[in-house]
Amino acid sequence: MTKEETIQAAVATAYTFEEYITLIEQLHTEEKATSFPDNKSYYDYSVLGLSRMKRVYKKVELNSEIIDRIKAISSPQHWVLISESWCGDASQTVPVIAKIAEQNPNITLHIVLRDSNPELMAYYKTNGATSIPILVILNENWSEITVWGPRPAVAQQKVMEYKAMPEAERPAYEVLSTEIQKWYNADKGLSTQNEIAMRLI
Fold first, then answer.
1. Residue 192 CA: distances (Å) to CA of 10, 79, 150
2. What are the helix (H) ranges across the chain?
3. Could you name the domain of life of the organism this protein comes from (predicted)?
4. Which residues pair with 134 in a beta bridge?
5. What CATH number did the domain enclosing 144 receive?
6. In sequence order, which residues have a C-beta less than 8 Å from that of residue 116 and are 6 or more positions away?
7. Short-list 193, 116, 123, 96, CA closest to 153
8. Which domain holds residue 10?
């Protein structure tokens, strides 16, 4: 399949933000997470992620720049958002993106699962890795406008610095994860908004 056909095939099984939340809630009744139904650690991350997503969605305030850019979109766009329920970065950015997309009826948000769509993910790797979330913005004819992800630039720099450290000197990944989550909490979704706004110029 072509790239365009791969995207459209993924979208055929996509979720709205509300459906995505419902899917995760249903999986949690069986102590499961997306793509890792038998892994307790991923379930625990997913439970934490769901709590974060609901909190961020409820509390995030969109700034005037992103609202103006979004309201200026005058023709239909497809926003394809690649995610998973257990992803810490997704838990902080997916609800912000959902809130942004809601500001204009010309935008249709399609949330797709990374591990259910390896053909799609192959087009959107970061430094060779299948990092998520990834937001692909396309026009009404499915031509790519821009791509954002897998995390705001400040958080991405923290990850790159961590990976560049000699292995013997690296702290446990949980230390980095906690630091990044604290940064997200202080940032309040502003970096995600600003970076997406810049891509919509």
1. 24, 15, 10
2. 3-11, 17-28, 40-59, 64-71, 88-101, 118-121, 153-164, 173-187, 190-199
3. Bacteria
4. 82
5. 3.40.30.10
6. 13, 35
7. 193
8. 3-152+189-199
Is 144 part of any domain?
yes
- For the chain, the domain total comes to 1
Could you tell me if residue 40 is inside a domain? Answer: yes
Confidence at residue 168, expressed as pLDDT on a 0 to 100 scale: 87
97/81 Cα distance (integer angstroms): 9
Task: State the pLDDT at residue 169.
Answer: 87
Q: Is residue 76 part of a domain?
A: yes
pLDDT beneath 50: ranges in the chain? none
Strand-pair category, 107-113 with 77-83: parallel
Backbone angles phi, psi at 175, to 5 degrees: -65, -45
**Nearest Cα to Cα of residue 20 among 96, 101, 85:** 85
Confidence at residue 28, expressed as pLDDT on a 0 to 100 scale: 97
pLDDT value, residue 37:
80
Q: Contact 70/100 with Cβ under 8 angstroms?
A: yes
Question: Has residue 163 been placed in a domain?
Answer: no
Q: Report the DSSP beta bridge partners of residue 113.
A: 83
Question: Three-state DSSP class for 45?
Answer: helix
pLDDT number for residue 38? 85
pLDDT of residue 112: 98
